[in-house]
Amino acid sequence: MLIGGGLITLMICVMLVLAIRARAGSGRGERFWIWGWGLGFSLPVLTILVGFSLWIGERMLARADDALRVEAHAARWDWEFVQPGPDGQPVRTETTLFVPAGSSFDVFISSEDVIHSFWVPQLGGKMDAVPGHVNVHRLRADAPGTYEGLCAEFCGVGHPFMRFTVIAYDPAAPMPDMSEYIIEDAQP
């Protein structure tokens, strides 16, 4: 990223020097700027940037494989999760999500009232929770640990308190005790 920014800055400096030194009234300079720098420089740079963005964005899309499926439902000013419990049956928890470390999981994100944004900075990008729509976001916790998540879209006076925790546990070890976090058994 730093190298790309440096190259773009260097190219802009070269273009400025050439613009200052260009002869007035020749017409050649105008064609050169339009075709040489306007298209010849812009198209390759934009192509590289778009390709890189698509490559990065593709890694965060859900795929049809055996990834764990969890649901995140936002409502002013709280997060509720539906996830597999210790016995494999879905359970509903409030503000805490349990996922196995080292494997990808898909979060199906929805909202009850206004636009919220599901974001766990240490695990990847963020995804909006839009009322009446379900967005799917693929994440992965590489190591066991506790990761803090938050709503990244201002949603009203309780917005600063709309935080949640992702607990990534070692899949080889017993599943952590989630009994204190369970609200009720979720209906499948």
From TrEMBL:
Q: Which organism is it from?
A: Paracoccus tibetensis
GO CC: one term?
A: membrane
**Catalytic activity entry:** 4 Fe(II)-[cytochrome c] + O2 + 8 H(+)(in) = 4 Fe(III)-[cytochrome c] + 2 H2O + 4 H(+)(out)
Q: Which UniProt keywords apply?
A: Copper, Electron transport, Membrane, Metal-binding, Transmembrane, Transmembrane helix, Transport
- Looking at the keywords, is Metal-binding present? yes
- PANTHER family listed in its UniProt record: CYTOCHROME C OXIDASE SUBUNIT 2 (PTHR22888:SF9), CYTOCHROME C OXIDASE, SUBUNIT II (PTHR22888)
This protein's name: Cytochrome c oxidase subunit 2
Q: Tell me where in or outside the cell this protein is found.
A: Membrane
Q: What's the superkingdom here? A: Bacteria
What lineage is on file?
Bacteria, Pseudomonadati, Pseudomonadota, Alphaproteobacteria, Rhodobacterales
Q: Name one GO molecular function term.
A: copper ion binding
GO process terms (BP): ATP synthesis coupled electron transport
Query: Which residue spans traverse the membrane?
Result: 34-56
For this protein, the record's Pfam families field holds:
COX2 (PF00116)
Limits of the Cytochrome oxidase subunit II copper A binding domain: 65-184
Q: Which family does it belong to?
A: Belongs to the cytochrome c oxidase subunit 2 family.
